[in-house]
Amino acid sequence: MNKKTVRSELAVKLKQVSLATPLLTASGTSGTSDEINDLENSPQIIDALGAFVTKGVTLEARSGNREMRVVETRTGLLNSIGLQNSGAAVFVREELPRLANYNLPIIVNISAGQVDEFGRLSEFLMEHDHDEAIAGIEINVSCPNICAGGVAFGVDPRTVEKAVRAACQPLRRDVFSLTKMTPNVTDISEPAKGAIAGGTDGLSMINTLRGMAINVHTGSYYLGNKTGGLSGPAIKPVGIQMVHECYRTIPECRRGTVPIIGIGGIATWEDALEYIMAGATAVGIGTAWFVNPNVFVEIKTGLETYCRKHSTTITQKIGSVHEI
Ligand SMILES: Cc1cc2nc3c(=O)[nH]c(=O)nc-3n(C[C@H](O)[C@H](O)[C@H](O)COP(=O)(O)O)c2cc1C
């Protein structure tokens, strides 16, 4: 688990787990240990991270959506990967032991097609995590609910509550839970309250915004799935507003008993600090990492410099904009 030295200015806590920095990989954008180990400056990248969030794991293997699965737009990336992964059995046997070598808290992002499948997946992970390498799980309620005709779990507060309760129930006492919220709703605080009622320890927001791109030259859709999820710079103001709204209106978020992980369009230390000032305890970075392999190191250095210059800490800046 977390054996890194905890640096005081950047250190934050997620339940009982101390993170050396508030920087997390955003699920689905960092693959597994192999991809990071291939990078020339991997020790510095690992050092800049507070925790590693895995790509989405499902109970059974999934081959994902048909191609094309990603397309760049002027302001961000559209993807429709369709949760391609090797399934939970391969994950615990092959990927988890490699991830454990990072010496970082490992947060496993989980997806399911039905409420009770979240419970079975969580139970499977706990039963097979023999070395207790899993520090947390991130319950992706942005994925389609088969029982609701494929509508995301995350749009209905009652369904979110049930999915979160099912996923949390089998967890070991030392494993914390985050719920990955979908932004494709009118008022994010309602499903967030559902997640808290279901027992989540924290909220991760936001997942991608539903979008589409059409190739006018071929007259067809760019993505094989027609629609996809938009990430990157375009979604940052949406994410900031949603973090701000939950921090403002949900007492548990305001008190820090249910911390928020701010995600969406972060590419610089200023972006990360913006989320923290809006109410996030930590941040996840995804799309920017595709364009800049040094993004975590740069953001960590920027936040450190800021904290030293202003004699402050990340913890002191959480939700600071609400004080004015
Ligand atoms: C290629 C790709 C795959 C993703 N896969 C997952 C996933 O498996 N589970 C999940 O909860 N979110 C997934 N996401 C959403 C990201 O974790 C993140 O919420 C989103 O991309 C916004 O952050 P960003 O703008 O920094 O990329 C994925 C995003 C991308 C771009």
Summarize it:
The chain has 324 residues and is an alpha/beta fold.
Overall description:
The structure is a single chain. The protein has one domain: Aldolase class I (TIM Barrel, Alpha-Beta Barrel), CATH 3.20.20. The strands form four sheets. Strands 3-16-15-10-9-8-7-4 form an eight-stranded parallel sheet. The protein has a four-stranded antiparallel sheet with strand order 5-6-14-11, with no helix packed on it. Helix 5 packs parallel to helix 6 and helix 9 crosses helix 11. The longest helix is centred in the C-terminal third of the chain and has 15 residues. 49% of the residues are buried. The chain has twelve helices and 16 strands. Helix content is 35%, strand content 18%. By secondary structure, it is α/β, with parallel strands linked by helices. The mean pLDDT is 94. The site of flavin mononucleotide has 27 residues, from strand 6 and helix 10.
